[in-house]
Design a protein that fits this description.
Layout lengths: L7 E3 L8 E5 L1 H5 L1 H4 L3 E3 L2 E15 L2 E6 L2 E5 L4 E3 L6 E8 L1 H4 L3 H9 L11 E3 L2 H15 L7 H23 L6 H13 L6 H8 L3 H12 L3 H19 L4 H7 L5 H12 L3 H8 L2
Parallel strand pairs: 1-3
Antiparallel strand pairs: 2-8, 3-7, 4-5, 4-6, 4-7, 4-8, 6-9
Helix pairs in contact: 5-6, 10-13, 11-12
GO molecular function: DNA-binding transcription factor activity; sequence-specific DNA binding
Protein name: Transcriptional regulator
Organism: uncultured Dysgonomonas sp
Length: 282
């Protein structure tokens, strides 16, 4: 079944170094594109130098102010604020660009700033630090590609992400544990085909009680509720931004019978899929 989407999906431009720096003014230059629902296949790190922006990400408004950063993950549906007055920069980068070492790979999947569990956290950052780092990255982007460019760019990005993570750790008493992060990543890869908790406890070789304790502490939800919420989010995305029928969406999400999908969606959203879709039409 071909999934026809009615929103634009952007992939990273082919490049020897998969990182790019843009001025946020480019958002206002493309209001009919970036001000409308769209998604990308790479990470977007936004820094506001001045002003306030109200972006809409996966059906939620996210407000970011001066001297704050925000990370948008691959696959998230965004509508950027094209009206408010603000200045800043945006770093675009792929997961393969950042994951040059085992430490980086672990950070990518266990950090709070890039967490699948609590996405789109707005983090305050030292204006002097972020300003200098953005300037350094901007200068590095002007250099012809050589054997040092990727490493220098990665180092600058790493400092920005690590400093943001430090801020989150200073304000959060709960750290993402290995079991919890492994569970969240497993759900992300398998939720369309596997919605039963037993599948994940077997996959991770962990007891249900131990898993429930970790996930409850991290998210406030049980593992089963976490799985269901991920299914609901994908259902909302497909209902709002694809031309698939409700029956086809249910099939994509692993529901063999349309009635089962309808009942599942209504239980969690308190609307039928058709009602939700009609409510998102502008």
């Amino acid at each position: 079944m071909k999934q026809e989407e009615i929103i634009k999906t952007f992939n990273f431009n082919t490049s020897a170094v998969e990182i790019e720096l843009k001025d946020l003014s480019f958002i206002k230059e493309l209001p009919k594109l970036l001000g409308m629902p769209h998604k990308v296949s790479f990470y977007q790190l936004l820094w506001l130098k001045e002003g306030e922006a109200r972006h809409r990400i996966d059906f939620h408004e996210v407000v970011i102010n001066s001297d704050q950063i925000l990370v948008i993950a691959p696959g998230q549906v965004c509508e950027f604020d094209t009206v408010s007055e603000y200045e800043g920069k945006m770093i675009l980068f792929t997961d393969s660009f950042f994951s040059v070492s085992e430490t980086d790979s672990n950070f990518l999947y266990t950090s709070q700033i890039l967490s699948l569990v609590k996405q789109n956290r707005v983090v305050s950052i030292c204006p002097l630090l972020i300003g200098n780092l953005m300037q350094l990255l901007e200068e590095e982007m002007k250099v012809d590609t050589d054997k040092f460019k990727a490493g220098i760019s990665q180092s600058i990005l790493r400092i920005i992400l690590f400093d943001a993570e430090r801020s989150l750790n200073a304000n959060q008493s709960i750290m993402i544990q290995n079991i919890a992060s492994d569970f969240c990543n497993a759900v992300e890869k398998n939720f369309k085909k596997n919605k039963r908790l037993e599948y994940y406890t077997n996959l991770l070789a962990v007891g249900e009680k131990a898993l429930s304790k970790e996930i409850k502490e991290l998210t406030g939800d049980t593992p089963k509720v976490y799985i269901d919420k991920r299914v609901v989010l994908e259902a909302k995305r497909l209902l709002a931004y694809s031309s698939l029928s409700v029956k086809e969406i249910g099939f994509v999400l692993g529901f063999e019978e349309p009635t089962n999908f309808n009942n599942f969606f209504r239980k969690h959203v308190h609307q039928t899929p058709i009602q939700f879709r009609e409510g998102t039409i502008k």
